[in-house]
Every structure is written in structure tokens, then in C-alpha cells.
Fold this protein.
Amino acid sequence: LHKEKKIMPNKIIGFSKLSRVEKIDWLNKNILDDSHQVKLILDKYLNSNKDIQAIHDSFSENSISNFYLPYSVSPNFLINDKIYTVPLVTEESSVVAALSNAAKFWFDKGGFKTEVKSFTKKGQIHFSFDGDKNILEEFIKINEKEILKSTDIIAKNMKKRGGGISSIQLIDKTDELKNYFQLSVDFNTSDSMGANFINSCLESMSKKIKELSDEYFKKNNYGINIIMSILSNYTPDCIVESYAECDINDLVDIANIEPKEFAEKMKYAFDIAKIDISRAVTHNKGIMNGIDAILIATGNDFRAVEAGIHAYASSNSKYQSLSECSISGNKFRLSLKIPLSVGTVGGITDLHPLVKLSLQILDNPSSKDLMCIIASVGLAQNFAAVKSLITSGIQEGHMKMHLINLLIKNNASEEQIRKAKTYFLNKEINSSSVNQFLKLNK
Ligand code: MEV
């Protein structure tokens, strides 16, 4: 309360050139309270193995330590008749426990069946053109081969792996924005997520387009102005679907609720998420709890996947839930269809030791295999969340984890933790009740 008001730090030039210790000193002097505590904390989380630390430092600029998150595994995933143990990185308590329960539950019912429906990714060259559209179309048609040829060196290895550019298309957007055209390029990036490959191809193509068009349009006094060339994280043509189904009578032993009532309640909960945006976002967040955790563990770009999936959830011009629940006769079915652009080679998959390990745990999947696994994890997580919501509520599970966190924070012994788990079964869990318990159970 009585802390002196801090002065804003001055703008610093050349921060990235400072050594790690100098960076920490700067933080200490300019933002923190100039104590040695900061360096001690940051040092504690450095890896004692210099080689490993060097790998981590290479991932980002201005790295001064490591930020740890739990690395977990969830066994018993039966996906397309193969059993997987899934590596997960998440800080959210209950996510892994709930997922493991769902995997175990569906294991006995045939597991998850999943299929990659399409596998095309897109990049765009955005440009403005102030001339006759017909002449532009003619220019692209005449020069298509040469434009594509400009990617030959970049695409050589990708072609060997079965990937490459599959088509290009000129799109007229002048109705929406004056002079605006796109060259939309479809790619198959094989087992890589393909961001670098796509962006390199696009940049090479746009250079070629500029070069050829300057010459071509000289006589008409028209010009192509390249605005930008970049992949799209919206991947509605790179789709995977996963489903799980069982006989309604097999939905037994779920939190004291009759199978038929459980099935109907779950369907109703899924239907709510189809029509109500506020619920749809939370429903989809539950799906993403599992998806993000495996994306991080396998070194994939979770921001890209998140952006693409949420855009897809809005593709009916209204944001909706991504998964479906249906009851047909005695059959109960859950399914999830999502766009997923992921890789199992390239990026940090070859660099991060834990990412390599994750892929080994998953039996070195192809990117299509990984799409299938991720969609099934998302569906299992979704089932687990809605199952809790329509039966016990989610706080029961969360509070169990909260209790452990409070006990650990208060340096409880293993014996105290064991006793507390029983003691708090039917009691309010908060910091004062936990403190009180620890005082009485020294
Ligand atoms: C919490 O992280 C996720 C849930 O809110 C998902 C849902 O409501 O379906 C439980």
C-alpha cells in the first residue's frame, strides 16, 4: 500500500544485444526492486545441462529462463483400433484426469473412429491491380507455368515427400475492396505443418509476378502492387472427423444417472451449444483444453489451430459448437469435425527433446495420424467436460485439485495430504479450512 510509485523505465535500445545477466540487471533496476531474488528464481528454472539450455534459448529472443508447465500422459486411447498414450502439456487441473477417464470409458466401447476428410492448405498473394480484369486473367494464364517454376528449388524436397502446390486461382475481390485481387494457392505440405514452405513459395511467386507484370503491363500503363504474401490459418479444406458411439444401455455407472436420462441430457446440452453463442464458446473451450495440450506437447502451433478452428465454428455465419451428439434408436453418438493443420516434421519437432519424445510416445505418427489423434482427444475432452456438467458439476473435480494445491503451498507432508483427502471429502475447501486442518493434524 505504501510502496513508492515506480518510475516508468526509459526506452532501451539494443536490449537484445545485452547478455542474459545484463538483461536481468536491467529488469531489476528498472522494473523490479533491485533484489537478488529475481536472478535466483530465474536461475532456478534454467537447465543445468548447458546443451539443453542452449536449445531452449535458441527458440526465442531475449530468453532469460525457462517457463515450466506439467508434461503429462493420458493412456488408454483407442483410435482407429490402435491404442495410444497421449502426451499433454497443460496447467489446468483436472484436464488430464478427465481426459484419461473419458479415454478409459470409450476404450471398452470400441474407442474413437476417425478419418481425414481433406488435406489441402492455402496461401494467398494479396495485391492491387488498377487495370482491366480480363487482361490480368490473361497475364496469369500465360505466366502460370513460369510463376510456379519460381518455386522449383524450394519445392524440390517437398515434392519428393508427395507434397507441393496443387493449384492456383485468381480471385477478384474488387466488389469488396477497390482494385483488390488475390492469387489463392493450394498446397499439400505432407507431414509438415508447412508454414515456412508455403510462405517461401508465396514470396518467391510474388517476386516473379512483380517482375513479369512490370514488363507485361508496361504498354497499358497498368501495375500490380503486391501487398503481402502469407499462408492462411483458415484451413476449411484440411478437415478431420472423429466419432465415438455406443449402445445407450452401455452408458452405465455414470454418476448415479440412468443411461437413457444421461444420453438425453447430454444431447440436450450439445443442442444448447448449437444455438447459444455464450454456451458454444465455453463448449468449444472444453474441446480446446485437450487439443491445445497435445498441440503444445507435439510442438505444433496452437495459435494457428485455435484461430482456424474458431473461424470454422463461425462458418454458418453464426458461432456454433463444433461437436454433435445424436441419439438414433438405441445408438448414442458423439462426433467432432474440425480443421487441423499440424506437422510431425519440421519446426521445433526436430529440436525440442520433449517434442521428439511426444512423437515417439505416439509411435511417430504421420501428420494425418496426428490429426486423427488430436480430433479424438478433443472429442474425449468435450465428453468428459459435458459429462461432469450434467451430473456432478465440474467443481467437485476442480476442488480436489485445489485442495492438493493448497496443501502443497502450505508445505503439507505426504501423511497430511493423505489424511486431508479423506477429511475434506464432504467439507468446504478454502485456504482457512486447509490451514485449520494442518494446525490440528501436525
Ligand atoms: C473448463 O476449462 C472447460 C469447461 O468449461 C468446458 C465446458 O463447459 O464444456 C468445463
User: Anything to note?
Assistant: Residues 92, 282-283, 285-286, 289, 385-386, 389, 394 surround (R)-mevalonate (CB under 6 Å). The radius of gyration is 27 Å.
